[in-house]
Amino acid sequence: MGIFIAEGEKVVRRLVQSDIKIVSILLTEEWMAEYSPLLADRKVEEGVFVAGKKLLEEIVGYKLHQGIMAIGRVPEQAEVFASDKPRNGRRLLVALDGVANSENMGVIVRNCAAFGVEALIVGKTSCDPYLRRSVRNSMGTIFNLPIVKCEHLVTVLESMRNEHGLRIVAANPRDGAVDVSSADLSGDLCVVFGSEGDGISPEVLAACDTNVLIPMHRDVDSINVGSSVGVILYECARQRRQGAT
User: Fold this and answer.
1) Is 19 in the same domain as 123?
2) Mean local confidence (pLDDT), 34-46
3) Within this chain, do residues 45 and 129 fall inside the same structural domain, yes or no?
């Protein structure tokens, strides 16, 4: 089981409040005074270490803006459907193909958590969501989002369709894509996102049922993948809320 770094007060706080194992915490005396009650019943494997901010920065090798960081253990691999079907009866998952930028990954994780995604499926061509910058950009929301890493994304997508009845939707502005606001995103589905440069790979696209696009102005052909995830997941959430009324 690997380890990851959590840096910044909000990220470390969310780590402490989660069920994820903590290896160690390094913080200033000021933060120790505030965190003592939070850590009273929280196991920390190697201990909590207190030092001045200047010494902390010398130890970690870069300027530590908030004076607090921690090392946690990457949780065990989640199952694609780790829990019972959601209370509203509709599943929503996200799969990533070729998302290699760790900062984008963190934003995607945060969007998934914000819009009620059940699990994030990460193909082998995407970076690890537990990289330092990913964890930081997720603002610690990764600690409550099931992550599924897979070697064969196409196989997982086909299994979700054939065995669990999900529709596989590609965020792909080509190949007869429809406006995301016109597509039916209210049922059980998995939305697939690709890299900003090349998009979704041909083999993964072939495993998808439909393509959706975000309409844009002024000849802009694309936006950051993290932004795309936020827009499309918002539309999923909007349609689900509308269907529930």
Assistant:
1) no
2) 94
3) no
